[in-house]
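Give me structure tokens for this 212-residue protein.
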Amino acid sequence: MGNGPECFPAPATWHWPGAEESVASPARGLGGRIAHLVERSREGSHDAYRELVERHRDRIYRFCLGWVGVEEDAEELCQDVFVRAFSALPRFRGEQHFTAWLYRIARNRCYDHRRSLNSRKRKREHPLEASGDEDWICPQRRPDERAVESEELERLRKIISELPESFREVILLCCLEGMSQEECAAVLRCSRRAVEGRLYRARLEVARLWGN
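Here you go.
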């Protein structure tokens, strides 16, 4: 990466390593299968729900990690999201998109986690520190390329962790998870215009912090 706003391309091309499958995939290509699994899960099929978890676990974990910055906390939150979702399935409305519904549960749990930390006045020195680069870096890269990418990615994580929450969540959802602005608006329950405005300001702020 270089310096300045040109380092931060459009959300569709700003790739977060590990986010190969975006929310758009089940929404557009596998909607029927997801709906079928949701219905079977509502009827009590643990196998169906296990498949739903497998299809969504990685992206929900990444979202939680982007929020809380600690792998152990993100794993615990991710597990709790699916436990809560299973309990809430009888109240799930069919017109809702299941993936967006999961993200809203994850978002609420991350809010609760952050409020709990603030109430105890606990601070994290490295909010988005990961324990191993191998989870974030393409294994085909040469060692010298991996070192550079790891350093830049670590810097990007730290910058994202310093954003206001309203900016952080649109960056996580649109730029790093590959959601469209419409899909992000569905998760955040706001207008597409609101997402567009937040995303524009968030990318400017990331570019500013990157250049400092």
